[in-house]
Amino acid sequence: MDTYYHPKDLARFAEMGEEAPELWRKFLEWYNAVFKEGALTEREKALVALGVAHAVQCPYCIEIHAKRAKKAGATKEELAETTLITAALRAGGAVTHGTHAVADDDAHSGVENRLAALFAAAPAGLATLILDTVGDSAGHAGGTVQSDELGQDGHPFPTKTCPHC
What is the number of structural domains in the chain? Predict the structure, then answer.
């Protein structure tokens, strides 16, 4: 097998419901309703779905939702931004979870302490680059970290964070 994923398998999608037709009907009814225009346009919903498809790294979903977004009028720029937003969120999650790698053994050291430890261990300027690019959880836009918000070593760190990001 050349790859685990075969585009021809998408044609078998409907086979999923042969053994549970009532559940399949309900799933399709709900699935199709989700993508109808509502508070979000069909284009916006397709871009959200594309971002999620990238996040879960499903090549079938990426193909389906990229086509759906293009059909709904999404531009190449919007498709690119959607992909990069997803990449930024996945990278942010990796950085945030990286705090566990540098945390002391004390399980109660707190997220702020773990972030401070991560930034202290980072190469000079990396933490500043991250916060200058995306801002921080204290509500600062990128590039607005104040000098009084720096740790003892001069590395900036957020004062509040989501421990689950």
Answer: 2
- How many CB atoms are closer than 10 A to CB 55? 15
**Residue 132 tokens, joined:** 């200058």
> At residue 142, what are phi and psi to the nearest 5 degrees?
-55, 140
Burial of 99 (0-12, 13-18, 19+ CB in 10 A): buried
Task: Give pLDDT tens digits along the chain (165 positions).
Answer: 567 778 788 788 888 899 899 999 999 999 999 999 999 999 999 999 999 999 999 888 999 999 999 999 999 999 999 999 999 988 888 888 787 777 666 654 566 666 666 666 666 555 555 555 444 444 444 444 444 444 444 444 443 344 444
55 & 14 share domain: yes
**Quick one: 107 and 64 in the same domain?**
no
Say if residue 18 is in the same domain as residue 56.
yes
Q: Which of 115, 53, 112, 122 is nearest to 85 (CA)?
A: 53
Domain that holds residue 19: 7-74
DSSP 154: S
Phi, psi of 160 (to 5 degrees): -140, 140
